[in-house]
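anyone seen this seq b4? input:
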Amino acid sequence: MAAARWALLAGNFVIGCGVMVVGGTLNDLTHSLNISVAQGGTLIAIASVMMGFGAPLLAAAVAHIDRRKLLALTMLWYALGHAACALAPDYGWLWPIRALTVLSAAVFTPQAAATMGFMSTPAHRGRAITFVFMGWSIASVAGMPMAAWVGERLGWRIAMGLVALGALLVAWLVWRHVPKGIRPPALSWRSWRKVLSSPLLMAVVAVTACQSAGQFSVLAYMAPYYKHGFGASPEQISAMFAWFGALALAGNLWLNRVIDRTGAARAVTTTLAMMATSLLIWPVATTLPVLAVVMLPWALSGFATNSGQQARLGGLSPRLAPALMALNTSAIYLGQAAGATGGGWVITHQGYATLHWLGLAWVSVGLLLSIWAHRAQRSEEARHARTGLTAEA
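predicted toks r here
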């Protein structure tokens, strides 16, 4: 169990590095391929759309496959795809290869969470799922800064190649340590309809989409923002990404310790409020050190929110977890696409200075939805308790 958890965490780490490698190397990638920053952001949006729509569709297609085999093959595809991206001669080749490559992320992240939830007891399910998802936070600590530094000093192609090597290693780890024979029950169309027709479940999924859009309205363009807005050097850009990532990991560790005690809904609402606080006070940051302080609440809460949402949905309906995890992953990536696209439009028409207002608008909607969903959940639990007492009487 412990070895499987670490293997799946490592898988999410590599998945996170691969998803974020374009953002981290955006300066060199746009210069090397002779494209605009907004067009580079479109590359992020295209990948996010593929992951967003791919997650629920592929969840149904792969439901019958043994999870060890599925997750290992998924990482092999990720390795081959990133190797091909590194060799792409121009943007016309890169974007379709990238679009196909990231389908691995659409499968691995939700299926790893569902697999761990299936293997865990109800009392420890939330902590097990957030532990596996912590790989994304570690990617923001080590992967994103490393991609930024490698991109600035060695080029984006080397960064893509390193992701390919990491994916090969994880494929072997997953094959060796994840138990054979794990097949969570396949979901019927009736189950999918139940998920899609539930206002509570869909509201929680919408929270994920809104917070993801809010974060990536700004986060997708941080490398050029640091460079053009503050004249940051490659080392300073890498340091800022490392600062953000280290805080994100700390926030996820905190969430992993308290989520089963405080409840996922309350934890998510708190992290969304912290994120909104950073984006609200963003204009006071006139230097990189001040910006590092302003970003502190957001960095502590950013990836913790995603982990909390995974645990929140897993706890609301464990039986529907495979569908909910797929939809939640879809919401993460479609939110990234919306955020990157909107952020690119803002940069083109207004520059970098107003990006944070777009991010704040998205996060605020997510916060209001989270509060509503929490209240709806408590009302539903109270109604079920009354129904149970009536039946017992």
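Confidence is low (pLDDT under 50) at residues 389-393. Residues 82 and 164 are 5 Å apart (CA to CA). kinda curious what u guys think
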